[in-house]
TrEMBL record:
Keywords: DNA damage, DNA repair, DNA replication, DNA synthesis, DNA-directed DNA polymerase, Lyase, Metal-binding, Nucleotidyltransferase, Nucleus, Transferase. This is DNA polymerase lambda. It is found in: Nucleus. Its main location: nucleus. Its cofactor is Mn(2+). It comes from the Eukaryota. One of its GO terms (cellular component) is nucleus. Gene3D superfamilies: 5' to 3' exonuclease, C-terminal subdomain, Beta Polymerase, domain 2, BRCT domain, DNA polymerase beta, N-terminal domain-like, DNA polymerase, thumb domain. It catalyses: DNA(n) + a 2'-deoxyribonucleoside 5'-triphosphate = DNA(n+1) + diphosphate. Residues 498-512 have a biased composition (Acidic residues). Residues 146-165, 192-225, 239-249 have a biased composition (Low complexity). Residues 267-294, 428-449 have a biased composition (Basic and acidic residues). It comes from Exidia glandulosa HHB12029.
Amino acid sequence: MSRESREARIYQRFLVEERERYSDEARAQDEDDMREWIEKAEKRKAIMYEEHDKRRKKRKTEAINESPAATFLPEASSSSLTQPPASLSAPVHVEPAPPGGKRPSSPDSAAQTSHSRYAVNSSARSPRLIKRMPMRMTAPDDDATASDTRALDAVSATATIASSPPSAPDLTPPTAVQLATPPLDKEKGADTEPAVVAPTVASASASNVATSTPPDAPSTSAPSPTKKKKRELPPTFLSPPKASSSKSATVAARPTKSAKGAPKPPTKREIQRAEKTKKEAREAAKKAQEERESRMTHQEYIAYLPQKYATRNRKSVLQGCVFLYIHQENKMRTSVQSRRCYDLMWEHGAEIVAEFDPERVTHIISCKPKLVNQTCQACNVKTIHDIPERIKTFIWTWVTGCISANRILTAASDDNYKSFIDRPPIPESKKFNPRRHEERMRRNEHDSAEESSEDEAVADSKQKTGPIPVAGPSTVVAAPEKDDPLAEFYEQARYEAEDAVSGDEDDAEPDVDAGPSSKAKALKGFQCDIVGAHLSIGSECVNEDIVRKLEELMKIHDARRENESDKFRVIGYRKAIAALRRHPTRIQTAEEAGKLQGVGNKTSEKIMEIISTGGLERLKTERNDGVDVMELFRGIYSVGSTVARQWYTLGLRTLDDVRERKAGIRLSAAQEIGLRYYDDLNQRMPRAEAGEIYGMIKQRALDLDPKLDIEIMGSYRRRKETCGDIDILITRDPCDGKTHAGASRCLLHTTSSYHTCLGLLMKLLRVLHQDGILTEDLSVSHGAGTALEAKYMGIGRRDATSKRRRIDILTIPHEQWGGALLYFTGDDIFNRSIRLKASKMGYSLNQRGLYKGVIRDPRDRTVKLDSGELFASRTEREIFDALGVPWQEPWERVRG
DNA sequence: AGGCCGTACTG
DNA sequence: CAGTAC
DNA sequence: GCCT
């Protein structure tokens, strides 16, 4: 009550102040803009989804008919170049239909209409509108592509006009700013979105529930606290997968309980020590347990499950299912992953069998896609079609999907078809529903009505929401909800995460009884731990010739990129090269090279060859013009290896080919911009210029709100002599009740003050466009209009005479300053390294901060079953300390 | 043999 | 979802 | 590619 009302009061004051700055007329205009903006955005999004869906389906069917082919062809370009004859001479912006004309007509017409609309837009807009009203959407929303014109469009358009008149449309295509739908249209968006009035530090800690809630109706009227806050924590969101692992049946005592019961009174140190001994005992037991388990066969482990979980209640999500799990492992042992999968399935109520029994098995779960052979083998059938239709075949992600949705997913309700192994398409449409119903009836005799009657798709959206990480000051640990069924799980996760740190802290604490303090804790071997790694970088490298050759080789692999492993090969090369660059003395022998971190056998052999012969055979044999062309194409912003190869395969060889849209290629808005300023954007700018542009932007931002915190990051912050782009980070201390965000949806609907809805970033962009500092936009994050966290990516320049430069602007919640700074300062290798270390220590590091207690899907580590809890993020140093990484100034973080 | 950073926008 | 970027 |  008190917090809400105080926030409301603060917000009221904020409104009053804001109102004073606006004339009635201006406000009315802004309100219109905003309303219109929201409507259009929602409509457009709907259309886009629809279109996209259609297109995807179409493409799918096409793909089947067409041969894959498209490998790297060294020559034979000329023939394909001449293939679409008409197009080459045709006026540039008339796009030739793709060969075969499979696509709907939209592309061509879209390109044209958007051009013409561009003209209309820019001329029809009254000067006043252009000036203070970039949100205006004049374009009718008739076709998906053209309706891209929006938001900043007007502003960027004006800027573009200056440089090249619309009469040459081929040179100045519209700046298709993609100011996509604001998060407003998602329930979720509105909720997670921080309020204009962010809770103060104190109030944040006072509420242990989720994040700040936007002050509902700031004034009196009927506040509707009902629907919004429903979601705090879905009753049974997901379950502790990890829990099982630590649950060694032998270790009965649940340390979590005591931890929960005894909050703070005893000194921190005492608790830590007590926990440490407990933890050690636990760990020993756990390890022994793991050891035993790993020696079991799959069959044995499955048989052992009931015993392992004898003392625990099982969840019911998967109740009634009988799973056969398909894996690729040696039958005599079980891997950790498989065991975790078994655990998870069992814990959620599934029965598991080791051998296929068509009478019993209801689902076949494959640990990964495409294990058709293994599946057939396990089921003792010839083809996958011989498996009775009633038995569903899914891949593992389906299981985690079911668990987080808390229901059995079906192909009908879940369009994630990837979760399903390809089976004859018939059952899906026709027989599926009745059968599903029938099945459901059978397996849910007990908990009946509610489940079977529900519309799954709808139910899904209700339940999906996960727990929201507490974004408070990192020192505050929110207590889990008393009646939250997952409380104990969170507690467990937290406890385990602390294990990871406490060891490190021991090292720092002199008083702890010597003993096992420095156990295995000190994780090492991470690039980020090496202090002074940058020192040998600045000067010209003594191994430059070697590096050159290896870089060549890397580029070749980069260009080829036929499969996933090529990607990692490139990363491997990059690391080796970085190590070589850092090495201060001339490499003399292969052994010497091999000692470097990141340089292995293969590379040291190559190095040896270079040293002795001065060249690399491999370079000569592998090199072809494809590599050069791919490199050329990839220089275009937003063109990556895939597109570059596509174009090459289509016969394109030069940028002019691209400009002329040979072979009917189409460019995205960003690619078009990237192409237009190809030369500018591929050139690094002198450090001084970056500083100047930063200064100009900072000035304008401070004009809007003097209390902003603004910092330049990236290579500038690392003190590089030249900068590839300009990264600017903006935040604002919410201590006075204001933030840099705009109003959230609920405010928009409960007040009539739409003008306040424009977040700082939006306002700033407007100004920068007006002043000609920003000239084009590449992408603007959804939250730019309203959210605390938003990212802008675009192009700008110091003045009309200088080159165009990449500019990124980021706004973030104040408490994430450290995490964001760390991340956007880099460099790349340092980031990877420090994140890897975090992950190995049981944390997760991202641009928002360091999280602990993150639970990942044992199968797919990128899937988080629990997003964890913010652990440190206020300052960079806080994060370094938590990870045991020695402090390094930004310019000391250079690794590549 | 299995990893290799983690997240967001576009279309 | 794939591709791209940071 | 490299590393565990």
